[in-house]
């Protein structure tokens, strides 16, 4: 039985009808991500697609008494991908293979580039107005792949394409709190650049811990940049981060939906088509972005940084430029 207060709160809750699709929903990230989206009251229509397993995951989640209807789609019955995408508002893409120990994210390009390209073509056809949140690695290259496919189909909207770098941001909060003995939920670290090794730049100088001693700071930065390797090593061949990534992906998706709903001051670092370093041939860059009803509302510059961070930025740009070009050429020179 609901108490009177709970009943009143429930009956006055406003549900906006958002359709959200997860491509790769049967996987290590896909399953917990779908669970977290099922628990999100902003989501009313949840569609799960995978080559296999999506129907079982959807049926399982469909017993949870939250606001959304959840359906699973696979390619074996009719056009599952088309049905999963039709007129959806947000698409999250965790489809693709994860790393094993000894691999870089770039080593995943040979398999994941084709997967992401084909899914992007289906998005262009069935959900050209959707916000697309790319999780599949290597993000520095898969985001440009999606952009080029959407451009080739005449439906590219740079305000609605996002590389999800939220895992770097949540790791930074957690790791800095471990170093400083503080509450991780109140630690905010701006992380800019891209999503792999030295392209991940946590701006410690912009935190309240800017006076941290050099040795401690360098170890912290290295841990944030290579946090993914920590998980790959610990899972010992069974994949990479899935649960923390699901949390990160659900958090970012919630922010995108909050922006759609017109909530004010929704700001998240994310890897987007950005003017910040375009003059240097870098088409995409992660920096704090204000999200709104049309997607990207405002891209913030990275602000004042130290000489040490300038050096990191220079190295990041070199790698990022190559990663982005690799993704773009995969589509344009095919
Ligand atoms: N952006 C980030 O911060 C971040 C963090 C962690 C992992 N990742 C990346 O996410 C991806 C997925 O990782 P995972 O651990 O969930 O892998 P996983 O192997 O557990 O799951 C991937 C799922 O994708 C599905 N899939 C493959 N091809 C597909 C297609 N064409 N259409 C639909 N589904 C397809 C598979 O069937 C599988 O269920 C990897 O590339 C990984 O590197 C990114
Ligand atoms: O490390 C990986 O390969 C997965 C992901 O990009 C991560 O940062 O955990």
Automatic annotation (TrEMBL):
NAD(+) binds at residues 24-30, 50, 112, 135-137, 245. It catalyses: (S)-malate + NAD(+) = oxaloacetate + NADH + H(+). One of its GO terms (biological process) is malate metabolic process. This is Malate dehydrogenase. Residues 165-331 form the Lactate/malate dehydrogenase C-terminal domain. NCBIfam families: MDH_euk_gproteo. Coiled coil: none annotated. The active site is at residue 195.
